[in-house]
Design brief:
about 425 residues; alpha+beta; 4-stranded antiparallel sheet; about 40% strand; F-box_dom; F-box-assoc_dom_typ3
């Protein structure tokens, strides 16, 4: 660590000299005068800084005005996020939510590639606390490093890297609406989409509303949107929001009851257009004596529909959204290791294609399991013992037993500050 800090100091000293030369000042603050061959070009300095962890970049902003200027430029922040998205994740962000009221929540970074056989001390992990007074008992995701929360009247966007959050007032008509955060990398634009839930055939459909972050505009109603009842789970992949929704209610021919028709909906963040996608397949309720769960996931930067249990994974990967072309595959977990804990839920996949299982509501430990369908292997990474976690962060003796775990496989570090984003009024 000391060697790394010393290197940073040298880079700063030489960069400072380069900066002085750029401004026509050949004097140095100390007794050292650097020759031309010692000068590090600004572009190279920028590239070196970009390879540092986000935490170090934020800390080193106070080193000099030059470094502050480099690391706060929008182009640098965008390039850093793009680089973060292109490299394999080193850590998995998970959150522990107290199920009873959803008011207590703790985020933790667990290593992905470390094959550990024993539990680590809780103090060795990067623990992050979200903004207070937010309701966390619902499914959410990380979109380009930003995480959303909601209350009945507000939406909170949180950047855990910068320890900043911003609050938006919901439109009065959308108290119980689903809230989706979308990001368009082409225009570097974030948008909040509100979708009313619990639509029924006999009810009047409430049109979606949208807000562009930083535009200083109010919520806008999206016209010509299909009637739909959106579900909580969603993903933002390459500028497109994907989520499950009931978009029509069909009448059963036998008993004339109303049956929901579940489909996948897509929403283009830039054009603000909705499209429906037929589900590629539905699984039988049980297989190998175990119930199959169904879910959307992000699989190697593509949308995927999975049916799974602890012994099998059926997956359909969306290859062409326009033509609705899916690639189907099925994986049987290796026989010697196929018995994952019954409480382990599939939470998506790593950037290298490993399926991520996270143990939830366990009485003893917090662990993650990674299944590689190519090598047909399962590896486990032991994390934190529940008892130690409860002693450090639990509010009472029942905290552990009421925990629910959520994972954020696509989370990246984002250096964008939320301070410049104006909170827009409600409609």
């Amino acid at each position: 660590m000391e060697n790394r800090e010393e290197k940073i100091k040298v880079i700063h000293r030489i960069t400072k000299s380069s900066s002085a030369c750029l401004h026509g000042d050949n004097k140095s603050n100390g007794n050292e005068v650097f020759s031309n061959h010692d000068h590090i070009p600004i572009d190279l300095t920028r590239e070196i800084i970009m390879r540092l962890p986000a935490k170090s970049i934020v800390r080193f902003r106070c080193v000099s005005k030059l470094w502050w200027s480099i690391t706060t430029q929008p182009n640098f922040i965008n390039s850093f996020a793009i680089r973060q998205s292109s490299i394999p994740r080193q850590n998995l962000l998970i959150t522990f939510v107290e199920q009873d009221n959803g008011k207590k929540q703790v985020f933790c970074m667990l290593p992905i590639h470390k094959n550990s056989t024993s539990y680590s001390d809780v103090n060795n992990f990067h623990i992050i606390f979200p903004p207070t007074k937010v309701f966390c008992g619902y499914y959410t995701i990380s979109v380009n490093g930003l995480i959303t929360f909601r209350t009945n009247t507000e939406i909170i966007i949180w950047n855990p890297t910068m320890r900043e959050h911003i609050t938006f007032i919901k439109p009065k008509s959308s108290k119980h609406a689903r809230c989706f955060l979308g990001y368009d990398s082409t225009e570097n634009t974030y948008k909040l989409l509100l979708m009313a839930c619990s639509y029924r055939k006999c009810e009047k459909y409430q049109k979606p509303e949208i807000l562009t972050l930083g535009s200083q505009e109010s919520w806008r109603v999206i016209e010509n949107s299909p009637a739909q009842d959106p579900k909580c789970m969603y993903y933002c992949i390459n500028g497109i929001l994907y989520y499950n929704a009931v978009i029509s209610f069909e009448e059963d021919r036998d008993d004339h009851s109303i049956l929901p028709s579940l489909q996948i909906m897509s929403f283009d963040v830039r054009s603000e257009l909705f499209k429906s996608i037929q589900l590629p397949g539905r699984a039988n309720q049980y297989q190998d004596g175990l119930m199959l769960e169904e879910s959307l996931i992000s699989y190697q930067r593509k949308l995927a529909w999975v049916c799974y249990n602890s012994k099998i994974i059926k997956i359909w990967v969306l290859k062409d959204a326009e033509k609705q072309v899916w690639l189907e595959n099925e994986f049987v977990l290796p026989l010697p290791q196929r018995d994952l804990p019954e409480i382990a839920w599939l939470h998506g996949a790593t950037s290298t294609g490993e399926f991520i299982y996270v143990s939830g509501n366990a009485p003893k430990d917090i662990s993650t399991f990674y299944y590689d369908p190519v090598r047909e292997t399962i590896r486990s990474v032991k994390g934190i013992e529940y008892e130690q976690f409860r002693r450090c962060y639990g509010s009472n003796d029942n905290f552990v037993s009421s925990l629910s775990l959520h994972a954020f496989p696509d989370h990246i570090e984002n250096l964008m500050s939320l301070k410049h984003i104006m909170c827009s009024p409600s409609v």
